[in-house]
Design a protein that fits this description.
Blueprint (H helix, E strand, L loop, with lengths): L3 H36 L4 E4 L4 E6 L2 E6 L4 E4 L5 E3 L1 H9 L4
Antiparallel strand pairs: 1-2, 2-3, 3-4, 4-5
Length: 95
Protein backbone atom coordinates (compact mmCIF):
# COMPACT_ATOMS: atom_id res chain seq x y z
CA UNK A 1 0.00 0.00 0.00
CA UNK A 2 1.40 3.45 -0.91
CA UNK A 3 2.36 5.82 1.81
CA UNK A 4 0.60 9.14 2.33
CA UNK A 5 3.61 10.96 0.91
CA UNK A 6 3.60 8.82 -2.27
CA UNK A 7 -0.08 9.54 -2.85
CA UNK A 8 0.52 13.26 -2.37
CA UNK A 9 3.36 13.18 -4.94
CA UNK A 10 1.15 11.35 -7.42
CA UNK A 11 -1.72 13.83 -6.93
CA UNK A 12 0.71 16.73 -7.25
CA UNK A 13 2.05 15.30 -10.53
CA UNK A 14 -1.52 15.08 -11.87
CA UNK A 15 -2.27 18.67 -10.83
CA UNK A 16 0.93 19.93 -12.47
CA UNK A 17 0.18 18.03 -15.70
CA UNK A 18 -3.36 19.46 -15.84
CA UNK A 19 -2.04 22.94 -15.21
CA UNK A 20 0.50 22.64 -18.03
CA UNK A 21 -2.20 21.37 -20.42
CA UNK A 22 -4.41 24.32 -19.46
CA UNK A 23 -1.58 26.79 -20.03
CA UNK A 24 -0.86 25.29 -23.45
CA UNK A 25 -4.53 25.35 -24.42
CA UNK A 26 -4.87 29.02 -23.45
CA UNK A 27 -1.71 29.84 -25.42
CA UNK A 28 -3.09 28.03 -28.48
CA UNK A 29 -6.41 29.85 -28.07
CA UNK A 30 -4.62 33.22 -28.02
CA UNK A 31 -2.90 32.45 -31.31
CA UNK A 32 -5.79 30.80 -33.13
CA UNK A 33 -8.36 33.40 -32.05
CA UNK A 34 -6.27 36.27 -33.39
CA UNK A 35 -5.88 34.43 -36.70
CA UNK A 36 -9.62 33.74 -36.90
CA UNK A 37 -10.50 37.37 -36.23
CA UNK A 38 -8.02 38.54 -38.88
CA UNK A 39 -9.37 36.01 -41.41
CA UNK A 40 -12.82 37.54 -40.93
CA UNK A 41 -11.45 41.06 -41.38
CA UNK A 42 -12.16 42.00 -37.78
CA UNK A 43 -9.67 44.55 -36.50
CA UNK A 44 -8.51 44.53 -32.90
CA UNK A 45 -5.99 46.11 -30.59
CA UNK A 46 -3.77 43.62 -28.81
CA UNK A 47 -2.81 44.19 -25.18
CA UNK A 48 -0.64 42.23 -22.76
CA UNK A 49 1.03 40.09 -25.42
CA UNK A 50 -2.27 39.05 -26.98
CA UNK A 51 -3.89 38.01 -23.71
CA UNK A 52 -6.47 40.83 -24.07
CA UNK A 53 -7.90 42.04 -27.36
CA UNK A 54 -10.08 45.11 -27.78
CA UNK A 55 -12.53 45.19 -30.68
CA UNK A 56 -15.07 47.72 -31.92
CA UNK A 57 -18.68 46.60 -32.18
CA UNK A 58 -21.74 48.59 -33.24
CA UNK A 59 -22.64 49.02 -29.55
CA UNK A 60 -19.16 50.08 -28.44
CA UNK A 61 -15.96 48.43 -27.37
CA UNK A 62 -15.64 44.70 -26.77
CA UNK A 63 -13.05 43.21 -24.43
CA UNK A 64 -11.96 39.73 -25.49
CA UNK A 65 -9.64 37.39 -23.61
CA UNK A 66 -8.82 34.66 -26.14
CA UNK A 67 -7.12 32.35 -23.62
CA UNK A 68 -10.37 31.42 -21.87
CA UNK A 69 -12.48 32.69 -24.80
CA UNK A 70 -14.33 35.22 -22.63
CA UNK A 71 -15.71 38.44 -24.08
CA UNK A 72 -17.69 41.37 -22.74
CA UNK A 73 -19.39 44.23 -24.55
CA UNK A 74 -18.44 47.10 -22.25
CA UNK A 75 -21.85 48.75 -22.44
CA UNK A 76 -23.58 45.52 -21.36
CA UNK A 77 -21.16 44.04 -18.81
CA UNK A 78 -22.43 40.52 -19.58
CA UNK A 79 -19.83 37.76 -19.90
CA UNK A 80 -20.00 35.58 -22.98
CA UNK A 81 -17.72 32.89 -24.33
CA UNK A 82 -16.37 31.63 -27.63
CA UNK A 83 -14.48 33.26 -30.48
CA UNK A 84 -16.89 31.79 -33.03
CA UNK A 85 -19.87 33.34 -31.24
CA UNK A 86 -18.00 36.63 -31.04
CA UNK A 87 -17.30 36.59 -34.78
CA UNK A 88 -20.93 35.68 -35.55
CA UNK A 89 -22.23 38.51 -33.36
CA UNK A 90 -19.87 41.08 -34.90
CA UNK A 91 -20.72 39.99 -38.46
CA UNK A 92 -24.45 40.09 -37.64
CA UNK A 93 -23.90 43.57 -36.18
CA UNK A 94 -25.77 42.52 -33.05
CA UNK A 95 -23.11 43.76 -30.64
Amino acid sequence: MPTHQQVDRHELAIIIARSKRGQQKRSNNRQSSAVMLAQHGIEFESKNGGAHLILQGVNGLIDFWPGPGKWIVRSEQRERFGVKRLIEAIEAKSI
